[in-house]
């Protein structure tokens, strides 16, 4: 995507050919910095501390992490150890499991002397595939936005509410939930995005707002609990979110607070769509609420907040009453009954086992 007119991916092989570069998302929105990953441990750290985040980008980073590991130790033991370490970094995003399983199955058949080269080729393929998938998601989602635009007065924007960051920064390029927005904007369809701040890490206020702003898309940041109010007053035409894991039955797991948006959308007859690449679908699961592991992150993310002072200093302060216990579940599950449709690379699907299976029969066969 464009950053002030210059095109970037979120992850790429460095010019030295020996390392991988990423956009360090922990520095947003106050700085745009590139970090270098030289080892598998660097890749694992980047995933764990959220220098990279978003299910598709986590998977791509893990694939590069395996490649970096193969450069250091291409033995069977080295391969299994790398996949094991990387698998423990984040429990909820299924793309991590998918990418590592794909790397393990592909590389175990390659002679150790050729594994590093094969692993880097595979990581590049995963990145290119992600871009292609997200472009297809964008095209399908743009049809929804275009249809709503036809009902508007000339020049009146389609108001889209999103939650967390399912944008370019959560993928290799384009994003999932934002791909239809970017394509609509570039296609001349007037759009405006309501950006939930997305506490506690503020991925909406820090990341989504940053990338929309630098790409020139009109947007407004609102507090997380404003969505229902906006819907009640007819200020939201459509909700589009991403997802870190989707069950075979259409339940979607996304950043904490998504479920509440879906409930408000249902109550106000606002269409609620989820944009997802097929690697995010976990065909082994049927009940998202009971079966999807929910990551519990450190309470300091809730009790402390980082910001920039009027003097320009970056400071972290305490915001919770001293002595209070703090909980920090990172995700929640929205049941399929609250989802209007799933925007995938193969079209817009009904959130049901039958529709998902018909769209991706090869994935069903693989999971059997």
Automatic annotation (TrEMBL):
<dbReference type="InterPro" id="IPR011559">
    <property type="entry name" value="Initiation_fac_2B_a/b/d"/>
</dbReference>
<feature type="site" description="Transition state stabilizer">
    <location>
        <position position="164"/>
    </location>
</feature>
<feature type="binding site">
    <location>
        <position position="203"/>
    </location>
    <ligand>
        <name>substrate</name>
    </ligand>
</feature>
<comment type="function">
    <text>Catalyzes the interconversion of methylthioribose-1-phosphate (MTR-1-P) into methylthioribulose-1-phosphate (MTRu-1-P). Also catalyzes the interconversion of 5-deoxyribose 1-phosphate and 5-deoxyribulose 1-phosphate. Part of a bifunctional DHAP-shunt salvage pathway for SAM by-products.</text>
</comment>
<dbReference type="Pfam" id="PF01008">
    <property type="entry name" value="IF-2B"/>
</dbReference>
<dbReference type="InterPro" id="IPR037171">
    <property type="entry name" value="NagB/RpiA_transferase-like"/>
</dbReference>
<dbReference type="GO" id="GO:0019509">
    <property type="term" value="P:L-methionine salvage from methylthioadenosine"/>
</dbReference>
<protein>
    <recommendedName>
        <fullName>Methylthioribose-1-phosphate isomerase</fullName>
        <ecNumber>5.3.1.23</ecNumber>
    </recommendedName>
</protein>
<feature type="binding site">
    <location>
        <begin position="53"/>
        <end position="55"/>
    </location>
    <ligand>
        <name>substrate</name>
    </ligand>
</feature>
<dbReference type="InterPro" id="IPR042529">
    <property type="entry name" value="IF_2B-like_C"/>
</dbReference>
<feature type="active site" description="Proton donor">
    <location>
        <position position="244"/>
    </location>
</feature>
<feature type="binding site">
    <location>
        <position position="90"/>
    </location>
    <ligand>
        <name>substrate</name>
    </ligand>
</feature>
<keyword id="KW-0028">Amino-acid biosynthesis</keyword>
<dbReference type="InterPro" id="IPR000649">
    <property type="entry name" value="IF-2B-related"/>
</dbReference>
<dbReference type="InterPro" id="IPR005251">
    <property type="entry name" value="IF-M1Pi"/>
</dbReference>
<comment type="similarity">
    <text>Belongs to the EIF-2B alpha/beta/delta subunits family. MtnA subfamily.</text>
</comment>
<comment type="pathway">
    <text>Amino-acid biosynthesis; L-methionine biosynthesis via salvage pathway; L-methionine from S-methyl-5-thio-alpha-D-ribose 1-phosphate: step 1/6.</text>
</comment>
<dbReference type="GO" id="GO:0046523">
    <property type="term" value="F:S-methyl-5-thioribose-1-phosphate isomerase activity"/>
</dbReference>
<dbReference type="InterPro" id="IPR027363">
    <property type="entry name" value="M1Pi_N"/>
</dbReference>
<keyword id="KW-0413">Isomerase</keyword>
<keyword id="KW-0486">Methionine biosynthesis</keyword>
<feature type="binding site">
    <location>
        <begin position="254"/>
        <end position="255"/>
    </location>
    <ligand>
        <name>substrate</name>
    </ligand>
</feature>
């Amino acid at each position: 995507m464009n950053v002030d007119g210059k095109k970037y991916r979120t992850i790429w092989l460095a010019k030295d050919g020996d390392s991988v570069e990423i956009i360090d998302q922990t520095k947003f929105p106050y700085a745009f910095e590139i970090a270098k990953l030289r080892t598998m441990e660097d890749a694992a750290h980047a995933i764990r501390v959220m220098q990279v985040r978003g299910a598709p980008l986590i998977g791509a980073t893990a694939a590069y992490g395996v490649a970096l590991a193969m450069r250091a130790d291409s033995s069977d033991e080295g391969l299994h150890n790398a996949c094991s370490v990387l698998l423990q970094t984040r429990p909820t995003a299924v793309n991590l499991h998918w990418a590592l399983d794909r790397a393990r199955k592909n590389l175990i058949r390659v002679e150790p002397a050729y594994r590093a080269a094969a692993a880097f080729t595979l990581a590049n393929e995963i990145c290119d595939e992600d871009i292609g998938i997200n472009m297809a998601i964008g095209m399908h989602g743009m049809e929804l936005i275009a249809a709503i635009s036809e009902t508007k007065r000339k020049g009146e924007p389609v108001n889209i509410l999103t939650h967390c960051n399912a944008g370019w920064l959560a993928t290799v390029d384009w994003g999932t939930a934002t791909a239809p927005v970017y394509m609509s904007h570039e296609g001349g369809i007037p759009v405006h995005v309501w950006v939930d701040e997305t506490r506690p890490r503020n991925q909406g206020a820090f990341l989504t707002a940053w990338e929309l702003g630098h790409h020139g898309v009109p947007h407004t940041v609102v507090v997380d609990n404003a969505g229902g109010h906006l819907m009640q007053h007819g200020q939201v035409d459509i909700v589009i979110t991403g997802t870190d894991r989707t069950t075979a039955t259409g339940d979607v797991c996304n950043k904490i607070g998504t479920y509440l948006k879906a409930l408000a959308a249902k109550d106000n007859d606002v269409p609620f769509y989820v944009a997802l690449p097929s690697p995010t679908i976990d065909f082994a699961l049927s009940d998202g609420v009971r079966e999807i592991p929910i990551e519990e992150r450190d309470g300091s993310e809730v009790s402390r907040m980082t910001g920039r002072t009027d003097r320009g200093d970056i400071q972290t302060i305490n915001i919770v009453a001293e002595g209070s216990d703090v909980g920090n579940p990172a995700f929640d599950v929205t049941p399929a009954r609250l989802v209007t449709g799933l925007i995938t690379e193969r079209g817009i699907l009904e959130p049901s086992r039958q529709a998902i299976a018909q769209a991706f029969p090869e994935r069903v066969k693989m999971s059997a």
